[in-house]
Design brief:
This protein is of the alpha/beta class. Helices cover 48% and strands 12% of the residues. It has 2 domains: 135 residues, 3-Layer(aba) Sandwich (Rossmann fold); 78 residues, Arc Repressor Mutant, subunit A (Orthogonal Bundle). The protein has 10 helices and 6 strands; from the N terminus they run βαβαβαβαβαβααααα. Helix 3 runs parallel beside helix 4. The longest helix has 15 residues.
């Protein structure tokens, strides 16, 4: 693992995958993007958690099936240490026992390895902006999950009217900057509202907040970005 100097406007990426050929291939691809810099690689979940703490990358590409510690546990550890970490799962597996735990652990995006180069770059940029990015197969699974009855008890601390407004816009895939412009408030205030929303609803990410908004009827599939990714 090696650290590089920051550059203005550059997205710093950590690649975690136990297959050398995958890491080198993704690195080679990302090296063709002027605004993306690979700052490190990890061969397993423990290395990923350690590297995330050391390098503080903007986006972490996380495989799920790795030795020593799997990707889901690595996501949990990273999120516990760095709640603002932005993690994009990049895996071959679309099974429910991988998808739902990864999203629940706090991953903002979930991309399958059969995705094209442009899709990967776009997903990295979306996750960097704090937006959800889901492979269509994964989006369909999550939307099917929405049809199941909610097991989540009502929050004892209900959302304020302003927080509901913010949640509706987050569910559309809007960035903090866009939400701030729409509601004529500062980005810092938006971040505070989003943090309060996640805390009150006991959620780990904006993706989970979007799913909550859809389940509770606060947003529609036509509005939500998750339905089209």
């Amino acid at each position: 693992m090696s650290e590089v100097l920051d550059a203005p406007g550059v997205i710093r990426v950590l690649i975690a995958d136990d297959h050398t050929i995958v890491r080198k291939g993704v690195r080679a691809l990302l090296n063709t993007e002027a605004a993306i810099e690979v700052v490190g690689e990890a061969r397993d979940g423990q290395e990923a958690a350690d590297a995330a703490l050391c390098l503080r990358p903007d986006v972490i590409l996380m495989d799920l099936v790795m030795p020593e510690m799997d990707g889901i546990e690595a996501i949990r550890q990273i999120m516990a240490q760095q709640p603002q970490a932005r993690i994009l799962v990049l895996t071959s597996f679309a099974a429910d026992d991988k998808v739902f735990p990864a999203i629940k652990a706090g991953a903002l995006g979930y991309l399958l390895k059969d995705s094209g180069p442009d899709e990967l770059v776009r997903a990295i940029r979306q996750v960097y902006r704090g937006e959800s990015s889901l492979h269509p197969t994964i989006a369909r699974k999550l939307l099917q999950e929405l049809a199941a009855p909610s097991q989540q008890p009502p929050t004892p601390d209900p959302l304020t009217s302003r927080e509901v407004e913010v949640l509706r816009l987050v569910a559309r895939g809007w960035s903090n900057q866009d939400v701030a412009a729409e509601l004529v408030i500062s980005e810092a205030t938006v971040r505070t509202h989003v943090s309060n929303i996640l805390g009150k609803l006991h959620l780990a990410s904006r993706t989970q907040a979007t799913l909550y908004a859809l389940r509770e009827g606060l947003a529609s599939l036509e509005d939500a970005d998750i339905a089209e990714q």
